[in-house]
Amino acid sequence: MRMVTKLVSKSMAKSLHLEENCFLEQFGEGAALQARFNYYPCCQRPDSVLGLKPHSDGTGYTIILQDIEGLQILQNQQWLTVPTVPNALFILMGDQMEIMTNGIFKSPVHRVITNKEKVRTSIAVFYTPEKNKEIGPQDGLVNEERPRLFKHVKDYEIIHWEHYQRGMRALHTAQV
Ligand SMILES: O=C(O)CCC(=O)C(=O)O
Ligand SMILES: [Fe+2]
Description:
With 176 residues, this protein is of the alpha+beta class. It has one domain: B-lactam Antibiotic, Isopenicillin N Synthase, Chain (Jelly Rolls, Sandwich). The chain contains four helices and ten strands; from the N terminus they run ααββββββαββββα. A four-stranded antiparallel β-sheet has the order 1-8-3-6. The longest helix has 14 residues, at 2-15. The chain is globular, with a radius of gyration of 17 Å. 2-oxoglutaric acid binds at residues 36, 38, 52, 57, 64, 66, 71, 110, 112, 122, 124.
């Protein structure tokens, strides 16, 4: 998984014409990788029961492997289903990547719906900056055309969790 995060972090930096290690440096040597194994049983009332409530992740980003469809992303007030691609990992931006890219990569609200016939399992690996490490918009992404949108933050996932439990987003707390 470390290798995946190195590859993904470098690729994202390159795609924004930044020095390839800049995000890895923000995450720090002690960046956390935590895996959550999700099991969604069949549900007789998928019309009224969700597998996971709408939320954004407080991570840098989250690496997801899913066996069947169920994960949905909110875009323009519409829920879009993330397709299952065999042997593919799905990389979902978290709030801290939105902060580091000064709003260029968006951390989407997502949810999991339930299914009458099929059990669903997924593995979510949460990649989060090192404890006590300050992160913020990357220098090359703040300029006259794109003013700074976010402050520097530290241990953002704590405030994110407090908001999550109340069904709220925390990203506004990092806005300038
Ligand atoms: O089960 C999934 O596909 C996504 C899980 C998720 O969004 C989460 O654990 O934060
Ligand atoms: Fe999530």
